Amino acid sequence: xxxxxxxxxxxxxxxxxxxxEVLETTAFINGPKVQEFKAAFQTYLGVKxxxxxxxGTDALQIAMMAVGLKPxxxxxxPAFTYVATAEVIALLGLIPVMVDVDMDTFNVHVDSIQAxxxxxxxxxxxxxxxxxSANMEAIMKxxxxxxxxxxxxxxxxxxxxxxxxxxxxxxxGTVGHIGCTSFYPSKNLGCxxxxxxxxxxxxxxxxxxxKIANHGQVVRYYHDVVGCNSRLxxxxxxxxxxxxxxxxxxxxxxxxxADYYDKAFSRISDLVTPFRAxxxxxxxxxxxxxxxxxxxxxxxxxxxxxxxxSMIYYPVPLYQQEAFxxxxxxxxxxxxxxxxxxxxxxxxxHTEMTDEQLEYISEMVISFF
Length: 369
What we know:
Strand order of the largest sheet: 1-9-8-5-4-2-3
Structural class: alpha/beta
CATH class of the largest domain: Alpha Beta
CATH superfamily of the largest domain: Type I PLP-dependent aspartate aminotransferase-like (Major domain)
Low-confidence stretches: none
CATH topology of the largest domain: Aspartate Aminotransferase, domain 2
Radius of gyration: 21 Å
Distance between the termini: 22 Å
Largest sheet: 7 strands, mixed
């Protein structure tokens, strides 16, 4: 699905040199390399504060802790997403309120958010799924009207731009009150282990985020709040610093792959190719098709037989997962979420794909139909 090795070989000298410097200086945690990446990432995002952390799941948890959510508070989250988004809500004793998504963008449906708000609702977590933004202006208007926090799960859309109605741009993750991302190796900006970051333009929130990620302290051994231990190590910061200047090019390479697939599949009536929203650029963390007429699983088996990898992100709605059944009524049915779980399939997409690979994958998909 991804080719991290070929990408590494193109930046090998810089990565190897940086890692060697870390080994020689032994500044493994919060060293100069972490601070260098933090500054560069702030500039790239156009945001005032970046707080590096250990992974994307920690980023979401720390964000929810920082805004003061209390056990029993409700947090609205799409039902069609990776488990981490809802997992941290439950871990903190909060109530995940799962809502439906849009069939075109796969992102949280604005009307579903509005309908789910109750007196206990305190936050919304839009997920920028597969590489493009949710409808953030509409979500922020709802949040402002009801006094809600907005925490963006930007793990899959780093590098994408949100396009405001007046035409100006902002990086995904910087529109809401807090943005969170993961640097898992397969992400568009990925390190060689676990890593994550939290970002905000709010000075007070930034102070609290930093404290919580650092055992609740600013001055060592003086703990102002109950926090956790979540840090980006220096070796991962080296990798991220090497990749960051190439991120826009990486995104363009993914778009090229998506355009190739789109053209190849344009005449297949049983396939729906990815939609591009007018309010967002798309960085194609995944290239996800909808397979109509119940043929998704047969296509996946066919591709496997012909040595083409594919993945289903995600096969089960969150509210049908055993871990979350206590939070929902047994009769909950979200039509779009269930349709997507039964029909989506993602094809290989990464920065190093060759025309020969694209031609073979496309031919195998077309030959199935």
